[in-house]
Write a structure and sequence with these properties.
Length: 442
């Protein structure tokens, strides 16, 4: 692939061709109840079951024709291919974020596959017998409930957030919390060095000396609806200052076809931590969303950014109004159906967080029954429910038949994955989608 072909994401619904994921593993095991708040989890996951559920999601993606890349495989290859100075720079930055810079030389002495595992799974002090004693380490021994020299990165399973494919480039995310700061470093490094031709980036300038308000944006807040306009959530994890920086420093200068960036001003709450927890696109002219916010505008407002002008609040306009202004006929499928109780319940369990594999072909957790019913009864979707207990040959046959259907909602077991507060869109980072020339022209 040449540079232009390496990244191609001009919509949310074009057929998915290449996507990056991460199967949760030992980094989940290295997380205990004492770290939950710090690492942004609500509960301890059963790593083995979460991994199997993730395998099922990957099976669906691959059966639909997507090439699926595991980020740790890309990282391993990148560590082998990258020059020594690039690896040293990565390790130094990782150790700095982990607040134990003096272990960097020991990490550099590791074999590259072992280093790759350590950067994701973490390292115990007992695995670094030559590590010097420091005041920080003494305090950790006295006050902490873990013995980790390098903490794990359990949130890496949510590959949507650290780097953000937009059109023909990948924008480097700025993670809002220290617990996730390493992820952007790892994903950017992997995409840079895993292949002979590096992935082209955008908004990649180092800015760690800026105030945090100017460097917080995560991929779950960015919806690439068309070449003409984007939606970006100003949320718990993405700040207004960083959205303006991304728009005016990177997007408007590079993309003359981009006319507007709509900013969805959301409450800074964990229940709606990203825009894609309340809105995703699932077909041309069809969106899945949390109706109180998206349709009725409760606790939400919309502003617009244009090149060479000040931001403007769109008073009295909802997100759904904006989508209809831009796209014409647009329908909203209410997450949880029409019952306010189930709208709240299924928004929490990622009922609005669908990933579109192809127009009208989406993935959801099977537990979101009211959302699935609304899709099937009111919008012509066929549910294809897949289970870990079903025979693999039977699953393959069902998946093969489903590809020929106009609208399909694949539902899969997610009892463990859903406890991590992220759905199928959160766990997928598209690198390439098929372009729809007719829709682009619109």
């Amino acid at each position: 692939m040449n540079d232009v072909e390496r990244v191609r994401v001009f919509s949310e619904v074009g057929r998915l061709q290449r996507v990056v994921v991460h199967r949760p593993g030992p980094e989940i095991v290295h997380m205990t109840q004492y770290e939950l708040e710090r690492v942004l989890f609500d509960d301890i996951l059963a790593a083995d079951l979460a991994g199997l559920e993730h395998d099922l999601m990957r099976e669906i993606l691959e059966r639909e024709g997507a090439v699926v890349h595991e980020i740790t495989d890309l990282l391993r290859d990148a560590l082998v291919r990258a020059p020594e100075e690039a690896v040293a720079d990565l390790v130094d930055r990782v150790c700095d974020r982990a607040t134990h810079r003096r272990i960097a030389p020991m990490l550099m002495d590791m074999e590259r596959p072992e280093l790759g595992r350590a950067l994701v799974h973490g390292l115990f002090w007992s695995e670094l017998p030559k590590a010097p004693m420091t005041l920080a380490r003494i305090r950790q021994q006295l006050t902490a409930h873990d013995d980790m020299a390098l903490p794990p990165v359990p949130n890496l399973m949510f590959t949507r957030d650290p780097c953000i494919p937009i059109f023909d480039r990948v924008a480097v995310g700025r993670m809002a919390t220290d617990a996730r700061a390493r992820e952007s470093l790892l994903v950017r490094f992997a995409l840079t060095w895993a292949n002979e031709t590096p992935t082209p980036f955008l908004f990649e300038t180092a800015d760690w000396d800026r105030h945090r308000a100017f460097r917080a944006i995560e991929g779950g807040d960015v919806l690439v609806v068309s070449e003409r306009f984007l939606l970006i959530g100003c949320s718990e994890r993405t700040t207004p200052q960083t959205i303006e920086r991304l728009a005016h420093e990177a997007l408007f200068p590079r993309y003359p076809h981009l006319e507007r960036v709509y900013v969805v001003l959301m409450p800074a709450q964990r229940s709606v931590m990203h825009l894609d927890t309340v809105l995703t696109q699932i077909d041309h002219g069809l969106f899945l969303g949390h109706a109180p916010m998206i349709e009725r505008g409760e606790e939400v407002a919309v502003a617009v950014l244009r090149r060479d002008s000040e931001p403007r609040l769109l008073e009295g306009r909802t997100v759904l109004d904006v989508l209809r202004d831009e796209l014409g006929t647009v329908q909203l499928v209410p997450c949880g159906g029409t019952d306010p109780l189930f709208q709240r319940r299924e928004q929490w369990t990622d009922g609005a967080n669908a990933v579109c594999i192809a127009p009208g072909h989406i993935l959801l957790y099977s537990r979101n029954s009211r959302t699935i019913a609304a899709l099937c009864e009111d919008h012509g979707f066929e549910q294809v429910r897949l289970s870990l207990q079903s025979d693999p040959k039977e699953r393959a046959e069902r998946l093969s038949r489903a590809r020929g259907q106009a609208r399909v909602v694949y539902t899969f077991d997610g009892s463990e994955l859903s406890r991590a507060r992220g759905g199928a869109r959160c766990m997928t980072m598209p690198l390439q989608r098929e372009r729809d020339a007719a829709r682009d022209a619109h």
